[in-house]
Amino acid sequence: MTFAENLDSIHRRLAAACARAGRDPAGVLLLAVSKTHPPETIRAAVDAGQLLFGENKIQEARAKIPLCPGKARWHFIGHLQSNKVRDAVELFDMIQGVDSLGIAKEISKHAGPASKTMPVLLEVNVAGEASKFGYRPETLLAQLAELNALPRVEIHGLMAIPPFTPVPEKARPYFQKLRALKNECEKILGVPLPQLSMGMSGDFEVAIEEGATIVRIGTALFGERQRTVRRAES
Q1: Which of 69, 134, 58 is nearest to 103 (CA)?
Q2: What domains can you pick out in the chain, each with its CATH number?
Q3: Residue 175 to residue 211: CA distance in whole angstroms
Q4: What are the φ and ψ backbone dihedral angles of 95, each rounded to 5 degrees?
Q5: Do 71 and 106 touch, CB atoms closer than 8 A?
Q6: What is the mean pLDDT of residues 211-232?
Q7: Across residues 1-11, what is the average pLDDT?
């Protein structure tokens, strides 16, 4: 299938999930996870109407983004190291996956010279997996006020990657946990947090039913990753 056909299929599934949850499909952003896919693939995606993309490696994004259509918008969705923060601030419209106060402070520091206030999502390790990055919920709540006080960081919400399972329904409790944590954060801050980034190719419909406002779809849109590109960049 072509990208345009895959995109149409995802939009139909997205709309059906919203209908089940009594939600407006306009309230869910489809982020195309474009890591390892070359600029010509991004151009074809933009031609098909997809404008929001996610990358998880700064080196790849730095080489790729200038070669892609200017109307494309980019979110960083990987683990961000402190020595890559300056590039992330310059390249991306949002940084998802902020998982420590130290990284948030670095973002604020570099956003000033870039004349930006950086929208971010705070990553939560909802299952406490040792192999994954992200805040423990109690740590996030303890640091939330300090994070919110950073002058050049704007908290837009939370994101999470639940444990892998081939059964989408098994991800539901983790999506519910993230939504409940967002509600707690809103009470602490006294303002709404508009974004809840959760759900990928295998479970995005369940995530939408549980309140996702951003779903991150790669394989279901682009097909399998181009592994030869990944090896060349590693």
Answers
A1: 134
A2: 3-233 (3.20.20.10)
A3: 8
A4: -110, 110
A5: no
A6: 77
A7: 96
